[in-house]
Recover the amino acids of this structure.
């Protein structure tokens, strides 16, 4: 799946001026079109982290959409969470020792059988964990996504103890920031301009 998406991105990339040998050739792109939510997530990645290339942003956005779909989450929600966690930096390392795009602590990654240094495994692992939390909290709390984010940040025991989002300022700010990012990603879906590729 990632290879097909990478091939489609590579084939649709603007060609350099010195490819006279291909003049007159017709390039046929065979593959799925990129979904609006994937483009919106990619745009948010590029605006948040200028070190990420457009091709990598599209790959990460596609992996995010696929993982979110597999675990019953809105793609924009998962994208906003990963933007908040690391700005989609696969090499991110927090002062507390959290690793990679999804900022897994080593013990959490080991328990979930996720390689936190593998960006695609991290995206999938975060989707699985958030999907499990949201599923468990549906019907128990007014907003299962808020509770899922609180559990991702403060741990599920804190959510259980406080019957919802804990009173920790860090967790409350974390949830608010993700909801803000989520709203911005949704607004990008209505923006019809493309992703700008700088040469």
């Amino acid at each position: 799946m990632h290879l097909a998406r990478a091939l489609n991105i590579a084939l649709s990339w603007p060609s350099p001026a010195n490819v006279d040998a291909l003049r007159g050739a017709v390039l046929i792109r065979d593959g799925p079109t990129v979904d609006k939510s994937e483009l919106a997530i990619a745009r948010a990645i590029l605006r948040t982290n200028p070190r990420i290339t457009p091709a990598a942003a599209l790959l990460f956005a596609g992996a995010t959409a696929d993982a979110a779909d597999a675990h019953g989450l809105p793609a924009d929600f998962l994208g906003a969470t990963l933007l908040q966690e690391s700005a989609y930096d696969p090499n991110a390392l927090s002062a507390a020792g959290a690793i990679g795009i999804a900022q897994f602590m080593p013990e959490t990654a080991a328990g979930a059988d996720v390689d936190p240094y593998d960006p695609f495994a991290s995206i999938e692992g975060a989707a699985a964990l958030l999907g499990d939390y949201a599923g468990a909290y549906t019907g128990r709390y007014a907003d299962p996504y808020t509770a899922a984010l609180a559990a991702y940040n403060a741990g599920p025991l804190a959510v259980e103890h406080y019957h919802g989002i804990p009173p920790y300022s860090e967790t409350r700010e974390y949830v608010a920031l993700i909801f803000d990012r989520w709203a911005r990603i949704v607004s990008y879906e209505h923006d019809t301009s493309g992703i700008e590729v700088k040469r």
About this structure: Residues 35-189 form a domain with the Lysozyme fold (CATH 1.10.530.10). The radius of gyration is 18 Å. The mean pLDDT is 87. Residues 90 and 101 are 5 Å apart (CA to CA).
